[in-house]
Amino acid sequence: MNTKVTIAGVEFKNPVMTASGTFGSGMEYSDFVDLNRLGGVVTKGVANIPWEGNPVPRVAETYGGMLNAIGLQNPGIDVFLERDLPFLEQFNIIKIVNVCGKSVEDYLEVVERLGDTSVDMLEINVSCPNVKEGAIAFGQKADCLYDITSRIKKVAKQPVIMKLSPNVTDIAEMARAAEAAGADAVSLINTLTGMKIDVHRRTFALANRTGGLSGPAIKPVAVRMVYQTAQAVKIPIIGMGGIATAEDAIEFLLVGASAVAVGAMNFVNPYATVEIVEGIESYMEQYGVEDIQELIGGVR
User: Fold this and answer.
1) Residue 194 has what pLDDT?
2) CA distances from residue 7 to 11, 41, 129, 240 in whole angstroms, order as listed
3) Could you tell me if 38 and 185 are in contact, meaning their C-beta atoms sit under 8 angstroms apart?
């Protein structure tokens, strides 16, 4: 049974990875998860300088999911290179760094500093719905997305994955813009913009007022958008959004994703990623699927 997938020339032992912002750099989960079982780890967003993130409260539970307005809090590239990357280098795993910034120059600085490291791929986060700076505009306007993608590609030494926002009118248009600018792959979806009100305090549940909705509630939207994207572009797709089980992951593969990322479910079940890997293997055995490529894009 072959579970290997290749994205932009990078071979993964299986198609399951972590979604940025839900797994740190793996240290927090290494007591629960054998990282060597995963296809890849996508780190929390890394910026050129430390970010404090948004004021609290910044997480709220919702039906079938959660809202977060963390604001990409992170200790910055220096700490990542000194602490997190050496930790990840202990494992036989594809290392993908999620890069965030407040200007094109911020992104370029991080991309250049990662150029000569052991990092395998870069995921460019231009789609966070709870950062007030200009980053979200990059992910919501096709011309802005094209510009930042092309500029990053000029300096990047690793394959570039552009993480797409679902908070747009036409996801296929955004995917085509990323592909035309030279993106090696796209990942989607990031969170949907949402809001919750505390009726007892009669105020917003999040200090930021709005936040990103994730969890099982968004999965049907994510599956639809991955399907539309697969019809629009030829570059590989990493699908995410509400994946809780192996069956969820297989849905994404069948509509055209080459790999999947597990996010909010890590907070509910720290064993989720490995359970999904094992579940995909069981599914392939049950249905006599010799090569996972038989599943990818199987529904058209």
Assistant:
1) 96
2) 7, 14, 26, 16
3) no
Q: Which positions ≥6 away from 100 have C-beta within 8 Å?
A: 45, 46, 47, 51, 72, 74, 106, 107, 125, 128, 131, 135
- Sorted by where each begins, the domain ranges of the chain are 5-55+70-192+213-294
**Whole-angstrom Cα distance, residue 51 to residue 151?**
23
Name the pLDDT band for 103 (thresholds 50, 70, 90).
confident
Q: Which of 128, 177, 230, 244 is catalytic?
A: 128
pLDDT given at position 294: 98
Nearest 5 degrees, angle CA 298-CA 161-CA 142?
Answer: 95
pLDDT band at 135 (very low <50, low <70, confident <90, very high): low
Q: Which DSSP helix (H) or strand (E) runs through 99?
A: strand 94-99
- Residues 6 or more apart whose Cβ sits within 8 Å of residue 249: 15, 16, 243, 260, 262, 276, 279, 280
| Domain 5-55+70-192+213-294 fold | TIM Barrel (3.20.20)
267 burial class (0-12, 13-18, 19+ CB within 10 angstroms)? middle
Contact 3, 12 (CB under 8 A): no
d(CA 113, CA 107): 10
Largest CA distance in the chain: 56
Q: Is 128 a catalytic residue?
A: yes
